[in-house]
Design goal:
This protein is mainly alpha-helical. It has twelve helices and two strands; from the N terminus they run αααβαααβαααααα.
């Protein structure tokens, strides 16, 4: 659950309270992690859909993401596993799992020793995807938020949100949101985090 991953951002006691109330003999820890630049660009697009952000993704990285669990995966993971309550620790690379299995549910069930039921395929017919802004429109929406009054900006932004076909737009992954300065800082800052994650899976680093 994305909500559970935010517990360390607010209060680590939430983790122990949850585990105490589950009252299980043993626990398995399973967490999927997405490459931070891919994750942040996707998360920023989702934030922009629901909030009137005025700072671009680079400002938001330096002002917020960098010290949060949205980027500091060591803070996220260690807050859970340092409780010493978990029998097994499993962390997976979201990108690799989607390339291999095309389905994160299969990974979770495999790690928990559970069988993947074909009946779960029915759930796929109900496609649930977080709403977000296509990257092509991000700078336009930021400009509207910065320069127009709320009502006027929201009216124009709604028209953008209502666009439901992106056939003539570049794919999201082809659009760069980060500046060179921001990418260099992410690279340097994430080195120790990457090494920490690598130790958990007995590798030199987690993201190659």
């Amino acid at each position: 659950s994305e909500i559970l991953s935010l517990f360390p951002e607010y209060d680590n006691h939430l983790i122990t309270i949850l585990l105490d109330n589950l009252d299980c003999e043993s626990y398995d820890f399973c967490c999927l992690l997405r490459r931070p630049d891919d994750y942040l660009s996707s998360f920023f697009s989702q934030e922009l859909f629901f909030e009137r952000l005025k700072e671009d993704i680079n400002q938001r990285y330096f002002n917020y993401y960098k010290k949060s669990v949205h980027f500091d995966y060591k803070k996220l993971i260690s807050s859970w596993i340092d409780t010493n309550r978990f029998k097994n620790i499993n962390i997976g690379n979201y990108g690799e799992i989607m390339n291999e299995l095309k389905d994160t549910t299969k990974w979770f069930l495999r790690k928990l020793g559970m069988q993947y039921l074909e009946s779960l395929i029915l759930l796929k017919k109900i496609r649930r995807q977080n709403k977000s802004i296509h990257k092509s429109f991000i700078n336009i929406i930021l400009k509207l938020n910065q320069e127009l009054e709320n009502d006027e900006a929201e009216s124009l932004i709604k028209k953008i949100k209502d666009i439901n076909t992106y056939d003539k737009l570049p794919a999201n992954q082809e659009i760069e949101l980060f500046t060179k300065e921001c990418r260099l800082d992410m690279y340097e800052t994430f080195k120790d985090i990457n090494l920490y994650l690598g130790q958990i899976i007995n590798e030199d680093k987690f993201f190659l």
